[in-house]
């Protein structure tokens, strides 16, 4: 069985070698400015104010320390709450880097500081993406803007639209995260079922994380929620939190995991069977694998995202199982869940550069569940599968 998981493995030296590092953040800001000009008729777009940390990092290269980034037609400014001005200036030299006084660093005053600085620079209107800004932050920003006579427009999903089409270098980071995650998974299984049975879900999740870090990851890829390890009937929960339940012979063990490196992530799921296959899984597992393959067949550039969801969902339901209650796939990049969103009935189009998961499942309450998740990169005229671990039933049986 373990031989099936050995194909495509990477050496530890390869996993721990330095990842590519060069991103052109100035070009990203130029693309944002081009978008601002393109949609200026529907939203005031003299500038765009950004406060989501991942978005700030995407456009500036600064992964921490900058609380606001304001992109104007030419240049802009960054606001930091920390004594990191020198470091920030090195990353975004064409921006002014501002350090508010201590009296301006609480949330209300900080937003007022940002608005006041825009007004001082002659900016009369600014766009924000409210979907990437907390409600409280938006209200404080809006109130400050109203007091100072600035018009606020909503730039919904504009940044997501830019981020969801990955640059070649971003794909390299993500591919490295997939390689690390798969090699760590192989290591977890190196002692077979005997190395899993009798160990808690929490312990197995911790070991998998430690193995990924040992192979060069910065951390596991789900810092907000944690790796999912779900044993027996717990596998029927799509988003189970690992606990003290022990993995046992003859049960399913669902593992949803990924690595993070350089800010980028991977996201994979496999459902294992320890020693033997539970009765429900003998029929259900091939159905889930068929759903994954059905989605893969229609996943191509130019396809409507709803088509991919429908292909997987209809396969599961046609076999007599209840439909899964989530979109069949999502983008992965700086966030573990980001655009594109492969949801039912979505008319949005898959484009070159998008990287997405496909993760159909069958979930039977109080019995068990099965989920298989792969990652796919959309090219100009084809789609590449990024993960290499097998998904067939025979390979999932761990002796």
From TrEMBL:
<dbReference type="InterPro" id="IPR029149">
    <property type="entry name" value="Creatin/AminoP/Spt16_N"/>
</dbReference>
<dbReference type="Pfam" id="PF00557">
    <property type="entry name" value="Peptidase_M24"/>
</dbReference>
<dbReference type="InterPro" id="IPR000587">
    <property type="entry name" value="Creatinase_N"/>
</dbReference>
<feature type="domain" description="Peptidase M24">
    <location>
        <begin position="174"/>
        <end position="378"/>
    </location>
</feature>
<keyword id="KW-0031">Aminopeptidase</keyword>
<feature type="domain" description="Creatinase N-terminal">
    <location>
        <begin position="28"/>
        <end position="164"/>
    </location>
</feature>
<keyword id="KW-0378">Hydrolase</keyword>
<keyword id="KW-0645">Protease</keyword>
<dbReference type="InterPro" id="IPR050659">
    <property type="entry name" value="Peptidase_M24B"/>
</dbReference>
<protein>
    <submittedName>
        <fullName>Xaa-Pro aminopeptidase</fullName>
    </submittedName>
</protein>
<dbReference type="Pfam" id="PF01321">
    <property type="entry name" value="Creatinase_N"/>
</dbReference>
<dbReference type="GO" id="GO:0004177">
    <property type="term" value="F:aminopeptidase activity"/>
</dbReference>
<dbReference type="InterPro" id="IPR000994">
    <property type="entry name" value="Pept_M24"/>
</dbReference>
<dbReference type="InterPro" id="IPR036005">
    <property type="entry name" value="Creatinase/aminopeptidase-like"/>
</dbReference>
């Amino acid at each position: 069985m373990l031989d099936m998981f050995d194909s495509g493995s990477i050496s530890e030296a390869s996993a721990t070698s330095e990842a590519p590092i060069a991103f052109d953040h100035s070009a990203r800001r130029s693309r944002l400015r081009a978008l601002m000009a393109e949609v200026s008729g529907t939203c005031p777009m003299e500038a765009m104010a950004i406060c989501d940390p991942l978005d700030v990092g995407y456009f500036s290269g600064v992964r921490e320390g900058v609380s606001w980034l304001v992109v104007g037609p030419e240049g802009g400014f960054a606001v930091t709450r920390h004594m990191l001005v020198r470091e920030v200036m090195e990353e975004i030299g064409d921006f002014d880097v501002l350090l508010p006084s201590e009296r301006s660093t609480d949330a209300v005053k900080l937003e007022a500081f940002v608005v006041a600085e825009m007004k001082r620079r002659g900016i009369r209107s600014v766009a924000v993406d409210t979907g990437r800004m907390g409600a409280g932050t938006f209200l404080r920003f809006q109130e400050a803007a109203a007091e100072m006579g600035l018009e606020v427009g909503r730039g919904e999903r504009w940044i997501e639209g830019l981020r969801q089409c990955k640059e070649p270098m971003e794909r390299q980071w993500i591919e490295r995260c997939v390689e690390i995650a798969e090699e760590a998974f192989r290591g977890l299984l190196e002692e077979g079922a005997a190395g899993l049975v009798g160990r808690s879900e929490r312990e197995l999740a911790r070991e998998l994380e430690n193995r990924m870090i040992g192979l060069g990851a910065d951390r596991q890829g789900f810092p907000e929620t944690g790796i999912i390890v779900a044993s027996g009937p717990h596998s029927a929960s799509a988003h189970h939190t690992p606990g003290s339940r022990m993995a046992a012979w003859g049960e399913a063990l669902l593992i949803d995991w990924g690595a993070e490196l350089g800010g980028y992530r991977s996201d994979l799921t496999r459902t294992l069977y320890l020693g033997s296959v539970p009765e429900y899984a003998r029929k259900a597992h091939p159905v889930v694998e068929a759903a994954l393959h059905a989605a893969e067949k229609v996943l191509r550039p130019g396809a409507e995202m709803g088509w991919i969801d429908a292909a997987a969902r209809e396969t599961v339901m046609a076999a007599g199982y209840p439909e899964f209650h989530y979109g069949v796939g999502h983008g992965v990049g700086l966030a573990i869940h980001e655009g594109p969103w492969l949801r039912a009935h979505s008319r949005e189009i898959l484009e070159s550069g998008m990287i997405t998961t496909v993760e159909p499942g069958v979930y039977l309450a109080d019995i068990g569940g099965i989920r298989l998740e792969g990652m796919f990169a959309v090219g100009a005229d084809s789609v590449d599968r990024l993960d290499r671990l097998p998904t067939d039933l025979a390979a999932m049986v761990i002796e």
